[in-house]
Amino acid sequence: MAFTSVNKKKIAKPTSSFKKQKHEITKNPSFKKQKKESFNKKEKVVVSDPSSSEDEEEEDVGPDSDDSGSDISLDEGENPFGDDFLDGSDDDDEGKSLSSDDEDSDSDSDDDELDIEEESRKIDEKRAREQKDAEAELQLNIKEESDEFHLPTEEEIGAEALQPPDLSNLQRRIKEIVRILSNFKTLRQEGVTRKDYVEQLKRDLSSYYGYNEFLIGVLVEMFPVVELLELIESYEKPRPICLRTNTLKSRRRDLAEVLINRGVNCDPLSKWSKVGLVVYDSQVPIGATPEYMAGYYMLQSASSFLPVMALAPQEKERVVDMAAAPGGKTTYIAALMKNSGIIYANEMKEPRLKSLTANLQRMGVTNTIVCNYDGKEVQGSPHTNSFGMAFSEHQLVAGTPMRHSGFGPPISHGSVLFNSGYVDPFLPNIETFSLRQNREIQCTFVTSWCIIPFLPKVLGQNTVDRVLLDAPCSGTGVISKDESVKASKSFDDIQNSAFLQKQLILAAIDMVDANSKSGGYIVYSTCSIMIPENEAVIDYALKKRDVQLVPCGLDFGRPGFTRFREHRFHPSLEKTRRFYPHVHNMDGFFVAKLKKKSNTKPTTTPSEPAETVEHAPVPEGSRSNITQDEGMSQQSEAPSSPEKENDLIQAMKTMVKNGNSKPSETFEGTPPPNVRGKNRNEEGEFELSEPYSLERSNGSINSLKKMLKKQKSKASQETSEPSGTVVPAPALDSNKRKRNKAFGNSQPHKVNKGRGKANFLMKKSLRENGQMKYRSMPEKKWTNRKFPSREENGHMKNQSMPEKKWTKRKFPSREDISKSREEKRKVLSKKRTHEGAQ
Ligand SMILES: C[S@@+](CC[C@H](N)C(=O)[O-])C[C@H]1O[C@@H](n2cnc3c(N)ncnc32)[C@H](O)[C@@H]1O
Fold it and tell me: Would you call 527 a catalytic residue per the annotation?
């Protein structure tokens, strides 16, 4: 307190006469000299005798002490701390003046001193008051921060559920919960667990943004809450429109010039692409310019450049694009190959071939063979849609000219056109069926098996240099393009996708020749951010084939997950790349690049984790009865040689013919290919599916279903008995079980190694009894809300593409760009130096 008191005196505001004196004194060089001497003196004193009189003097100057004490000290200039305290600020200077003044002249009036003391006291009091107020306010803030927000009680939640959603309340609550969760220890409400907050957050995010329970649950697990909010917000905004220059016909700069002259406001996409342009706005429809028609560019999302860049196809190679329509990536591959070599552009869905061929033609691609095959190696799995026919309503009109796109005898007049020729090989004869209400179709249908050929069978194994598998997926990375994904995708959709993807990736690997001189690479990509469709698929491929992950050659993107919750993937998964809208300002995307080491297919032993293949998609309700290993073992049993495949197919055919089975256990909940074409984006980057239920159809297909169900349940009754083949799963909580299944993780269950028809039938019957569990959220789009944008939040860091809107201007040259950057840098560094100097 003694120090304070002295100090306060020194910083007391001088009177005007005082100021004048101060000015004069500070200008006076002799004063400076004195100050220096005084400082030196102080130094000496302190060093020579720490307990010198100055301390005593300080002690004398108590808060209540008479001013005289301090005055003596000040007047005599004895206080060695004086300079230390006063140095540096205006106030200090003023104090210094006071002290010096006293030193210089003893002739100042007592009045002045009293004024100073008075001032000083006032300031003391004012400070004390302010400090007290600040303290009180701080306490209040702390109290408010921790107290103001309470999770709603169950009654409140119940009441809320009866009302239309109160969006502002939801928004406030989301913000509050995110704030609390990001500083949980400090801000948590007494007695409330993190889980409680997370559960409420999930509910609120679902209601506010329209996600279903499943999807929001997965996202909450994948991202820290603050980031999750950013991701979800970024899904609410469209990504920039991009186009790729077709270097077979044009150069980016020339194209940009022409487009700018047409009123297209565009810029180079980013530093990682030499051919991309980002379009901010345009006075002409960008998909209908003469340049577009002439094939000078392809409208393509920025993310879809990435897999082709990772593939890095070389001239004169043999390259397969396994899932090609509508050809955004195929045409890019062709451009990189300069139209040399061969590209096999495969697309399973026939209606999509139109857009593929049209794009190839428009872009002047001449090295590509378009194929219409199933990319998988074998029909193999009894889990895929057994009536896997692709229908569209117009094709079901009686008298439609028939075409047969598979093998077998020509289909007679009056039967159905299969738009992809994709017909399950195990389908028995069916006389009549209908797909939709009131639409009965007479169908003299398939008297022999009608099978779409498989691409790997047609091209052969180990025959090509590179394969791009831009796999069909759930589309969870492109929610900004298709909001319905939020509400429509269920656990089963993800699982079905992952299952198909695993089949496709093995087929892709098998087509590549490990001994290719220039290649031997496989690139796998999806526009999904779900781990089961990405890392889990690659991890599976690493276990099943002699391949290794190599860097994607993309210098941005986040590394893939090597672990997620209890799941562990191969450490090299960090070489894969993930792209997010909130980080990279492009669609959610995943890219992995594999190098095939040898053409051998490793045989896996039961102990190997490679056996932990996901099982077939199973309806929710029946999962608990089926162990992970069962599903897994079905997959690991999948025939790896053509002979085995044939054996299996023959066996299945016999079963079907004998009326024992219809391998259609996933008919329900399995999306029919291509039914919802309207939901495809321009590039077909995602596929939407809606659960396709037999309940929608009527007529004899239902009776067939019933009949087959009966047979199966009869068979399962006969066989589910004590062969003891199915060991009940240990009590996993349902979430864990779901996750494990989706990830294909093994569970330590013993399974029936001698499984066969009976086991197979039993499992199917169990599955068929299941029900879809996930509740779909309303698809309603909420409008009157506004969350702070990422820009407003200052979160637009690390973005790969500018969002800024440019005014119409000339397309800058490379030199212009680098010049202006250099200038900016200079200005910035000048500014910094200036600030630093200040
Ligand atoms: C993501 S899209 C491909 C987009 C394309 N790569 C592009 O860049 O334009 C996936 C495609 O795979 C096709 N597809 C689905 N199942 C398939 C299968 N079993 N074999 C081959 N293609 C399949 C879908 O019809 C869809 O066109």
Answer: yes
Q: Could you tell me the distance, in angstroms and rounded to a whole number, from the CA of residue 286 to the centre of ligand 1?
A: 25
Q: What is the pTM of this model?
A: 0.57
How far is the centre of ligand 1, averaged over its atoms, from the C-alpha of 535 (Å)?
19
Amino acid present at 763: K
- The span from the CA of 405 to the CA of 350, in Å, is 9
What does residue 343 show for φ and ψ, rounded to 5 degrees? -115, 130
**Phi, psi for 58 (deg, rounded to 5):** -60, -45
Domains belonging to the chain, first-starting first, are 2-130 (no CATH), 154-235 (no CATH), 240-300+791-820 (3.30.70.1170), 301-378+454-602 (3.40.50.150), 393-453+614-768 (no CATH)
Q: Which amino acid residue places its CA nearest to atom 20 of ligand 1?
A: 375
Per-residue pLDDT at 197? 94
HEC readout, 761-791: HHHHHHHHCCCCCCCCCCCCCCCCCCCCCHH
User: Given this model, what pLDDT does residue 450 score?
Assistant: 42
Please name the amino acid found at residue 767: R
CA of 321 to the centre of ligand 1 (A): 9
CB of 526 sitting under 6 A from ligand 1: no
Which pLDDT tens digit goes with each residue over 582-598? 999 999 999 999 999 99
**pLDDT recorded at residue 60:** 35
Rounded to whole angstroms, the Cα distance separating 213 from 201 reads 11
Whether 325 has a binding-site annotation, put simply, is yes
Q: Is 382 helix (H, G, I), strand (E, B) or coil?
A: coil
The Cα 691–Cα 492 span in angstroms is: 9
Tokens of 754: 């001698």
* Whole-angstrom distance, CA of residue 98 vs CA of residue 74: 9
Tokens 């794009």 belong to 359
Instruction: Decide whether any atom of ligand 1 lies within 6 Å of the 325 Cβ.
Output: yes
- Other CB atoms within 10 Å distance of the CB of residue 248: 18
Instruction: Kindly provide the ipTM of the predicted complex, given to two decimals.
Output: 0.99
How many other C-beta atoms are found inside a 10 Å radius of the C-beta of residue 13? 16
- Ligand 1 mutation pick, 356, 376, 470, max ligand atoms within 8 A of CB: 470
453-511 pLDDT, tens digit each: 899 999 999 999 999 999 999 999 999 999 999 999 999 999 999 999 999 999 999 99
